[in-house]
Specification:
Layout: E1 5-8, H1 14-21, E2 28-32, H2 43-50, E3 58-63, H3 68-78, E4 82-85, H4 91-95, E5 101-108, E6 111-112, E7 124-131, E8 134-135, H5 146-149, H6 151-157, E9 162-165, H7 173-180, E10 184-187, E11 192-194, E12 197-198, H8 200-220
Parallel strand pairs: 1-2, 1-10, 2-3, 3-4, 4-5, 5-7, 7-9, 9-10
Antiparallel strand pairs: 5-6, 7-8, 11-12
């Protein structure tokens, strides 16, 4: 049984980091460094969070159309494990930092445009909801049926490890796994009591729901 990779994103608090860092079923912790997000971290704040406990997870730094110099400063200060490019960065830009990376593509009105330059690379993909030009952080899911019904997308995704983001929570993650079984899931606002503050009980329940749903998926398939 292949376990779904789990990324908890938008971490802004020390206690949330420590809690997530100690959860065996979490694979990635996401820290956001774009000012367009209300969960954006200053470099010093991110350093303080990570220094509060020995890291047990891969730390993903999320960027969106930011300068090479700024990204290099973040990498130097924090030693990020993985970069996530959430804007319209080119493949050449993504490769500049000699780090594994995740490239986000946005879905709006059941349409996604995957940049063909990335198709024959080893990049991981992330599909997220775009609403009225707001790319990510919408708290809304897209129509997951396009993952299988749109052959132009499903054919590409067969070649890449891909994460699903956008509006995930304890009420719908079972449906996603049972019907689509993505490589990974990325969740943030669906597990919060307020912007940037995670609910530890919701996170625990989410992890349990993912593993229960996986078991059900493999029993049916």
């Amino acid at each position: 049984m292949t376990k779904t990779k789990i990324k908890f994103c938008g971490i802004t608090k020390v206690d949330d980091y420590i809690f997530i860092n100690n959860q065996d079923d979490v694979n990635y912790i996401g820290m956001i460094f774009t000012e367009k997000s209300p969960r954006c971290l200053a470099i010093d704040d991110a350093k303080n969070i990570l220094q509060s406990a020995h890291r047990n997870k891969s730390i993903v730094g999320v960027f969106m159309n930011q300068s090479e110099d700024y990204i290099e400063r973040v990498i130097k200060a924090i030693d990020l494990d993985i970069l996530q490019f959430h804007g319209d960065e080119s493949i050449g830009f993504c490769k500049k930092f000699s780090k594994p990376y995740i490239k986000t593509f946005h879905i709006e009105h059941d349409t996604v445009n995957i940049n063909s330059d990335f198709i024959d690379t080893d990049a991981q993909f992330l599909l997220d909801t775009s609403v009225a030009g707001k790319e990510g952080g919408t708290g809304q899911k897209f129509n997951w049926d396009i993952l299988s019904n749109d052959t132009s997308i499903s054919g590409i995704l067969e070649k890449h490890s891909f994460f699903i983001a956008g509006g995930l929570d304890n009420n719908n993650v079972r449906d996603l796994i049972l019907h689509h079984k993505p490589y990974g899931i990325d969740v943030s606002s669906g597990l919060e009591t307020s912007i940037g503050k995670k609910d530890h009980l919701l996170m625990k329940k989410f992890l349990e729901n993912v593993r229960i749903s996986e078991k059900e998926y493999y029993e049916k398939n």
